[in-house]
Amino acid sequence: YPQRHAPETRLSEFNLTEIEAMLGSYTKVLFVRDPFQRLISTFMQGMGSSPSFSSLVQEVLDSGQHNASVAWKPLVSLCRPCLVQYDYVVMFGFLRQELGHLLRQAGLPVDSLLLKFTDTQVRWTYSWLSEQMFSELSLQQKKQLSHFYRWDLAAFPFSSSFLSD
């Protein structure tokens, strides 16, 4: 389908037969990140208009799943892991290990292409940030946020997420 394929072409613009053919011919990789860490990242990058983390969380909760920004929309609704059979699911925090495996599978030289990721530092930093940000939230916001991301938490092994409780 090269004549209809362009960088901005969405999968939904093709019919079911074309979608199945395309998805069957690609190696599909899904990069996932703990939803609470995604919210922290959104806040730290200033992508929301909120002055505090707790007000960003309230903005997320007020928007609802259907009107949510891509920055914080649940991954399950964005990537459809129940419909698309991904060949690889790469977890944020394990990028170095998992990208090395992907590069080897693709027959590419791992050492020359793999950046020096510091996963341990990243995990420690997000763990500390998560504790700080989570403490800003009310009990009601925590419960609502866990409900908002319930399908992501069920679909992916975010066992250490603050939202898992």
From TrEMBL:
Its EC number is 2.8.2.-. The keyword Transmembrane applies. It is a single-pass type II membrane protein. Coiled coil: none annotated. InterPro entries: Carb_sulfotrans_8-10 (IPR018011), Sulfotransferase (IPR005331). GO terms for molecular function: sulfotransferase activity. GO terms for cellular component: Golgi membrane. GO terms for biological process: carbohydrate biosynthetic process; dermatan sulfate proteoglycan metabolic process. Keywords: Carbohydrate metabolism, Glycoprotein, Golgi apparatus, Membrane, Signal-anchor, Transferase, Transmembrane, Transmembrane helix. Its main location: Golgi. It is found in: Golgi apparatus membrane. The keyword Glycoprotein applies. It holds the Pfam family Sulfotransfer_2. PANTHER family: CARBOHYDRATE SULFOTRANSFERASE (PTHR12137:SF64). Belongs to the sulfotransferase 2 family. This is Carbohydrate sulfotransferase.
